[in-house]
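Weekly modeling sync, notes
Attendees: S.R. (lead), two postdocs, one rotation student

Agenda item 3: backlog of single-chain predictions. S.R. asked that every request posted to the team notebook include the full sequence so nobody has to chase files. The rotation student volunteered to paste the first one in as an example of the format we agreed on. Action items at the bottom.

Example entry:
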Amino acid sequence: NGYPHISATTREKVEAAISELGYRPNLSARSMGRGRTGFIAFAVPSLGNPHFAELAARVITAAKRQHWTVLIEETGGQKVSEDTLVKTMPYLVDGIILHPESLTAEDVEERARDTPIVLLGERGLELVADRVVADNVSAADEITEHLIASGHRRIATVGIRSDAHLQASQFRDQGLRRALERHG
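Predicted structure, as returned to the notebook:
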């Protein structure tokens, strides 16, 4: 394992034995000894969404710096997929980063006691697990304010209301309207 206080002779003998026997470490046994697996799960509705794909890339980059391996799962936002994930992954990983679309607080709460879970998005589940969320209301307000300050008077949006079931869209619409109302 690269332990620094081993003589060169001993290191050579061990490496020769490893090579001769074709030894490969048993990851399950190693994780039991360490008390951790070295894996984290990253689960989002769809990697086809550029936001989630970019986020996955950044999570992987950050995890590699800490010698973690990221297991990626697409849930499709389906209750059964998300539920299976929070019930089975805690036995396989040391933590879960999840963007839930269908889970309830009760679904997450039980598993968050045993395995760290970080939630992404506006689902309002912050009372049962840590959560990372963008302030979509303020962001849309600031963008709209910038457009108004730049002299624009006919401001339109594309796609904000098309996914009205998504809370992020609803929050962005609120921010847009807030800024527009402020300016009459």
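Discussion: group reviewed the output briefly. The first strand starts at residue 39 and ends at 44.
Action items: rotation student to repeat for the remaining queue; S.R. to check formatting next week.
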